[in-house]
Design a protein that fits this description.
By secondary structure, the protein is α/β, with parallel strands linked by helices. The protein has 21 helices and 16 strands.
């Protein structure tokens, strides 16, 4: 019998549902779920699974606080403990699964299922041929047909190395209706993403969709003081008042303006905090524009004193943090709320001095971040590129004269101002979705670096508009989910396990393809830079591409037996293999479409009529007929986008340049 708290949280409810669902699947036994008010006392003949912070947990004297366990569970850590005692003729046994105030209880249940039935989740995917109205499920292992198994004695306390893990990849992000899903479909996708250890920012960071004052969870300083509401009467509150070259749509607030702060900003922030009563993090982060910071005399004086705009920003944030804490202490019983600020573009460089011994120190105490401020460090700085195939502390392979170590040094500098960190990292090349982007060689090292600096929240951003992408995207999602728990995990073993369980009979050719690409792409650059486009003849020879597709054909052959014996499994594996093959078919069309016999031998000159009309869904290819056929295959596996809209013209320009230089005359 499963016991949950009388007022179970959403996480505890999901945990109980999972225990019931997968226990039934493994054993054929359906467990009842009851609130703890209906449970007998701890020492009874009833065998209980206690899920969450139940009265049974209290009765057993098991606490979840740091003073009870010796470690802080945080939001997502958990305990897993078997309690078994004999009282005369009564044999009492309870398995306790409980966590912090996040999803710890769910992860405790997963650990129990893993220990008992070999449960493991490898991916989130969508069932359905065209992915419209898709039903989401997970690729997982679970021992079944279990009728007689003794539960092992369990006594674990597990705390993740990274408290919160996020990803922009569509497969583990909550995006409404992108593939035509219903809310129920997305709810199930979110549940599977959560099982893999992923959350979404809106579950952690405060935001508001209120009509009168919508506030995003990031890039939101102007949301608190909307330009269209306040600028007519108070133009001096905004940066374009002092610099007319800044467009109305790209303004920042003047953080030196006390009237703006008291009249508009602080009341809006307080209202947002009250509207998000169950969240602990609220952001005050600048808009996503460069070189638009306020240039009034006060803001410029701060920039002169501190060397960048970050000094002005931190002093503003410290004032906010102090006022919010005093307000909450006085009126809301000391409720915990953390203020989150960016280190990004205009505020990327911290106000520190380099000492003679090579260490750093704050320019003055006013720019040391308050204890209730968290720095959201974004791995993107004006004028610098990151080689994402190498760790952030790498001192080789400079790009534009800058090595990755500049970013590591930036973290070192910020670390003298705060020990509280969130990280926005990158796991995808946003100008070239269809080409292998090697972050596999650096993923673990970077997660170790993030832990080293105390990051409690990491987002390895992937392609949000790339439905179910290629280039082994699901492996990246899986490895990140594992490294979140243990940054020193055996990545090679995890990778082998993934291929065996995700591609099954096709594991060998798919792993060969992966290894081949890793060897080829040992050098990558920052996502979002035009020089990062790898779709070039100099990189992909026709022989290379046919070699990759040959491995795809081997993978198809390896699963062919399932086409008749297990059609559902065949379809699932076929789609996964096809997603990987799309990249190389696409490259053949883009790079060699003039002279490759591809798709029924349609002649390029007779069928090309300009850019593909499906521009909202896929970037350009060389023939409309080829593109349409290729689009059908992309739709089949849910790959609806290969580049962000603002970068499509770059790929097309590359292709036009090649056409002019290489295409034979008709």
């Amino acid at each position: 019998m499963i016991v949950v708290p009388e007022n179970a949280t959403d996480a505890e409810t999901l945990a109980a549902e999972d225990l019931k669902k997968f226990f039934d699947e493994a054993t054929g036994i359906t467990l009842s779920v009851i609130p703890d008010s209906l449970a007998e006392n701890l020492y009874s003949e009833v065998r209980y699974f206690s899920v969450g912070n139940t009265s049974l947990l209290t009765e057993a004297g098991i606490g979840l606080k740091k003073q009870d366990l010796g470690v802080d569970l945080g939001a997502n850590g958990y305990i897993l403990k078997t309690c078994e005692k004999n009282y005369g003729d009564i044999n009492s046994r309870v398995v306790f699964m409980a966590g912090g105030d996040g999803y710890g209880t769910l992860y405790a249940v997963q650990e129990f299922l893993k220990e008992t039935f070999g449960y493991e989740v490898y991916a989130v995917y969508a069932e359905g041929g065209d992915y419209v109205g898709a039903n989401y499920t997970g690729e997982y292992t679970l021992e079944t047909g279990v009728r007689n198994k003794a539960f092992s004695a369990l006594d674990k306390v597990i705390v993740p190395d990274i408290e919160w893990l996020l990803s922009g990849y569509y497969a583990v992000a909550y995006r409404t209706g992108y593939l035509g899903e219903k809310e129920a479909d997305l709810a199930e996708k979110k549940a599977w993403a959560t099982r893999m250890g992923y959350q979404i920012s809106n579950d952690i960071l405060m935001y508001s969709t209120a009509t009168e004052l919508p506030i995003n969870s990031i890039h939101n300083l102007v949301d608190y003081v909307p330009y269209n509401v306040w600028s007519a009467g108070h133009p001096e509150w905004y940066s374009n008042y002092y610099n007319s070259s800044i467009a109305d749509t790209k303004v920042q607030l003047c953080l030196s303006n006390e009237e703006m702060y008291k009249t508009a900003f602080l009341p809006a922030l307080q209202a947002l905090i009250l509207a998000n009563e169950n969240k602990k993090y609220v952001t005050i982060t600048q808009e996503d524009y460069q070189n638009s910071w306020c240039t009034c005399s006060a803001c410029l004086a701060d920039k002169e004193k501190y060397g960048s705009n970050s000094g002005n920003y931190i002093q503003f944030a410290n004032k906010v943090a102090s006022d919010v804490k005093a307000w909450l202490d006085e009126e809301y019983d000391g409720r915990e709320v953390n203020i989150v600020i960016f280190a990004y573009y205009d505020t990327a460089e911290p106000p520190v001095l380099k000492n003679t011994n090579g260490t750093y120190s704050a320019i003055d105490q006013s720019v040391v971040l308050s204890d209730n401020i968290v720095l959201y460090w974004v791995a993107s700085r004006l004028g610098h590129n990151v080689n994402w195939s190498r760790p952030l502390n790498d001192t080789q392979y400079p790009i534009n004269g800058v090595t990755n170590y500049a970013y590591y040094e930036n973290l070192l500098q910020w670390s003298v101002l705060t020990s509280r960190l969130m990280v926005w990292s990158y796991n995808n090349n946003f100008v070239d979705y269809m080409t292998f982007f090697n972050t596999f060689d650096s993923l673990q090292a970077n997660m170790q670096i993030f832990k080293e600096f105390g990051a409690g929240y990491v987002m390895n951003q992937g392609g949000t508009n790339n439905g179910f992408g290629s280039n082994f995207q699901d492996l990246k999602i899986y490895l990140s989910s594992k490294l979140r728990w243990d940054v020193n995990a055996d990545v090679e073993a995890l990778t082998s396990d993934f291929f065996a369980n995700y591609y099954k009979d096709a594991a060998t050719p798919m792993r060969t393809l992966y290894n081949t690409l890793l060897n080829k792409f040992g050098y990558a650059t920052y996502s979002g830079v035009k020089t990062a486009i790898y779709l070039r003849r100099s990189i992909f020879s026709k022989a290379d591409l046919y070699g990759y597709l040959g491995l795809i054909d081997e993978a198809y052959a390896a699963i062919a037996k399932y086409e008749t014996t297990n059609p559902a499994l065949y379809s699932k594996l076929y789609n996964r293999i096809t997603r990987e093959g799309l990249s190389y078919r696409y490259a053949l069309i883009m790079l060699y479409g003039v002279d490759v016999d591809f798709r029924n031998g349609i002649n390029y000159y007779e069928s090309y009529y300009g850019a593909c009309p499906e521009t909202d869904k896929l970037t350009y290819a060389e023939t409309v007929a080829l593109q349409n056929a290729f689009m059908d295959d992309c739709k089949k596996v849910g790959l609806l986008a290969v580049a962000e809209a603002k970068h499509r013209t770059l790929l097309f320009a590359e292709w036009q340049e090649w056409q002019e230089n290489n295409a034979p005359t008709k």
